[in-house]
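step=encode ok
step=design start
structure_in=
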């Protein structure tokens, strides 16, 4: 990483992407269509850990869903997985970007060094980033999927003097910021407010 240019670090879930709607409005209906009651899908969704995190790991969700409906012999785990992969690994997922996300990435790319750090399952996230078209804005090395802590995933990076963090969780942004500050950077945090994400992205667009 070059030292001169400011580095902008984006979070993905709920920062650029409507992750919650993506699951509830996009993924759920495919399972409802094969006859699984929405209520049970919702149960699996919460059990899979959404409440604790801003992302969901598909294999955990599918595992939970399978456990809940196991007594019903109509479905195999593989079927549940196939539905997921067929629907999710498609360019249709692009519609779940917040309005303004792409505009923001376009503008940032002209001025800054880019980095995307997202937590979750590496295989799933890498694929979905591809279908979302994020490779227009980030090289493969600039799209990091952290299976553990975000800061762990960038330990080896040379950090430029100036950094900007765009995230929807203040606590996460602060952890990342203090890591960067320890490495000698000065950091600006730009937060996306989950209650008014589009307005915040618009504001961030003006600030960068
Ligand atoms: Mg997030």
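sequence_out=
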């Amino acid at each position: 990483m070059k030292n001169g240019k400011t580095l902008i670090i984006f979070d993905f879930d709920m920062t650029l992407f409507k992750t919650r709607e993506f699951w509830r409005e996009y993924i759920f209906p495919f399972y409802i269509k094969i006859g699984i009651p929405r209520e049970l899908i919702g149960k699996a969704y919460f059990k899979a850990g959404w409440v604790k995190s801003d992302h969901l790991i598909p294999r955990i969700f599918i595992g939970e869903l399978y456990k809940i409906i196991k007594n019903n012999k109509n479905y195999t785990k593989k079927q549940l997985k196939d539905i997921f992969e067929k629907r999710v690994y498609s360019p249709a997922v692009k519609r779940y970007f917040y309005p303004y996300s792409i505009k923001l990435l376009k503008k940032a790319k002209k001025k800054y060094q880019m980095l995307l750090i997202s937590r979750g399952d590496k295989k799933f996230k890498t694929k979905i980033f591809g279908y979302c078209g994020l490779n227009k804005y980030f090289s493969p090395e600039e799209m990091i999927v952290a299976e553990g802590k975000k800061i762990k995933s960038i330990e080896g990076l040379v950090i430029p003097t100036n950094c900007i963090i765009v995230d929807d969780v203040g606590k996460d942004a602060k952890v990342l910021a203090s890591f960067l500050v320890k490495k000698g950077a000065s950091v600006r945090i730009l937060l996306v407010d989950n209650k008014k994400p589009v307005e915040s992205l618009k504001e961030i667009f003006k600030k960068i």
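step=design ok
step=annotate ok -> The mean pLDDT is 92.
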